[in-house]
Design a protein that fits this description.
With about 260 residues, the chain is of the alpha/beta class. It has a single domain, classed as Rossmann fold (3-Layer(aba) Sandwich), CATH 3.40.50. Helix content is about 45%, strand content about 15%. A 7-stranded parallel β-sheet has the order 3-2-1-4-5-6-7, with helices on both faces. Strand 4, helix 4 and strand 5 form a beta-alpha-beta unit. Helix 4 packs parallel to helix 5. The chain starts with 10 loop residues before the first strand and ends in an 8-residue tail after the last helix.
Length: about 260
């Protein structure tokens, strides 16, 4: 007996898919047979991922949108449905750390910091989830997966706004799951640990990477494709009994990491 995950005939929308984790998630959904709507605020990045997928024989379209805007989100979802024929899976991956990882003590954050980082994490997630859920209610169900953060599992000194916004998404998932369950919509959160994305590789020197690796029981960082494979599984029928859950994928960092965020 063999078990495979087949998303053939499904339509998946991945936000923030122009690079990093989102790009890998989009590629893996296409590999699993789904038609993929690739969202990014940067048209050239979305187009590049679409080209990768179609060159490999998959189906994909670019849906460029600034997901901080209600109308843009509605247009993104409507375009996905119009061009690909529906919406079965949504992976909400947009999020940002303080600009340039400008981590600082809680007392130094000001209103503009809170509004900016909250908007680009919690608010974006909520706006996308609302539009996706509305579309899935109309079509008979689906799965919405939010990408949050391992920083929500422990104190996050010097990174309080980001961690608080991501933790709020985890709670939002539970509320959405209860409301939307009767509509056959599953809602989940996937929380990566420090992942070796392009931006992380550019921002962290070798010593900092070594510190992160040493702080995890598995002595490693998380890879893009591991998160993509988890997303493909969680949104498949193999996980159809799961909703309202927070799935941590951090190489065990939550078990042992104690250094402040500005040191790791």
């Amino acid at each position: 007996m063999s078990i495979t995950i087949d998303h053939a005939g499904k339509v998946a929308l991945v936000t923030g898919a122009g690079a990093g984790i989102g790009r890998e998630v989009a590629r893996w959904f296409a590999e699993a047979g789904a038609a993929v709507a690739v969202n990014d605020i940067r048209a050239e990045h979305a187009a590049a991922v679409v080209n990768e997928i179609t060159a490999a024989g998959g189906t994909a379209i670019a849906v460029v949108a600034d997901c901080r805007d209600d109308d843009a989100v509605d247009t993104m979802v409507a375009s996905t449905i119009e061009q690909l024929g529906g919406l079965d899976i949504a992976v909400n991956n947009i999020g940002m750390l303080p600009p340039g990882r400008g981590l600082k003590p809680f007392v130094e954050y000001r209103g503009d910091d809170w509004r900016d980082i909250t908007d680009q994490n919690l608010t974006v997630a909520a706006l996308c989830g609302r539009a996706e859920a509305e579309a899935m209610q109309a079509s008979g169900g689906g799965v919405i997966l939010f990408v949050t953060s391992g920083e929500t599992t422990r104190p996050s000194p010097y990174n309080s706004i980001y961690a608080a916004a991501k933790a709020a998404i985890n709670h939002l998932v539970t509320s959405m799951a209860v409301e939307l369950g009767p509509d056959e919509i599953r809602v989940l959160a996937m929380a990566p640990g420090t992942t070796l994305t392009e931006s992380v590789a550019a921002a962290f020197d070798e010593d900092r990477v070594d510190q992160i690796v040493a702080s995890t029981p598995l002595r490693r960082m998380v890879e893009h494709d591991e998160l993509a494979r988890l997303a493909v599984f969680l949104t498949s029928d193999l996980a159809r009994c799961m909703t309202g859950q927070f799935i941590l994928a951090d190489a065990g960092a939550f078990l042992s990491r104690t250094r402040p965020a500005n040191q790791i």
